[in-house]
Amino acid sequence: MSGQNEWNERYADQHLVYGYQPNKYLKQELAKLELGALLLPGEGEGRNALWAAKQGWEVTAFDASDVAQAKANKLFAQNNVWVQYHVTDILHFASNHQFDAIGLVYVHLQKDIQQQVANKLTSMLKPKGVLILEMFHPEQIPLTSGGPKNPAMFADISELKDLYKNLTIEELRKEEIELNEGLLHRGKAIVIRMRAAKP
Ligand SMILES: C[S@@+](CC[C@H](N)C(=O)[O-])C[C@H]1O[C@@H](n2cnc3c(N)ncnc32)[C@H](O)[C@@H]1O
Predict the structure, then answer these.
(1) 9-33 residue pLDDT tens
(2) pTM value?
(3) Which protein residues are within 6 Å of ligand 1, measured from CB?
(4) How is the chain split into domains, by residue range?
(5) What distance in angstroms lies between residue 167's CA and the mean position of ligand 1's atoms?
(6) Whose C-alpha lies nearest to ligand 1, atom 4?
(7) Which CATH architecture has domain 4-197?
(8) Which pLDDT tens digit goes with each residue over 82-106?
(9) Which one, of 107, 50, 113, 60, lies nearest residue 87 by Cα?
């Protein structure tokens, strides 16, 4: 599976390397929506799923890393929440359901699969469903606060507009923020935040 060993090694640390708190932008935007079915692709150790499930979202999550899944399931059990969490590559994830919201948080993919994934996520949204995305901007590459170093694993603002051209983009901007998300996302960072809805 794409990058599974690398991610398993990263998650071998007993701590939650991206912390316990949900991503701030995802939390802020989900809080504006009515509760429903939420999909979290590339959900890692479960911080976003935990928060969303506690709010009453019906959460489905997946990740390529089985080590991440084990840590996430432990976190859910400790907090008495139920999350359906699969181990699968994003290219192979399939569901009979459509979702009211999808949260794509720091899931950096190779350029050659970005359109295929964008099409898949778009098709998995219900009409009026909302995609909330945060990822590093290409200008993050020289910074040390997290993210990949390979330029082929980024998308810029115009590429995102194109990737998600079948959604109505409600918000899409580059932002300089102070990241404080666990051990691996910390310090000044240049990110992209996007909210887009299915017509
Ligand atoms: C930087 S981490 C972010 C984790 C989580 N979204 C969060 O906010 O804490 C990126 C995650 O994407 C997952 N990932 C990367 N490529 C993937 C792929 N092709 N299929 C499924 N998961 C993938 C990794 O395993 C990793 O857990």
Answers:
(1) 999 988 899 999 999 999 999 999 9
(2) 0.98
(3) 2-3, 7, 18, 23, 42-44, 47-48, 63-65, 68, 89-90, 105-107, 109
(4) 4-197
(5) 23
(6) 44
(7) 3-Layer(aba) Sandwich (3.40)
(8) 999 999 999 999 999 999 999 999 9
(9) 60
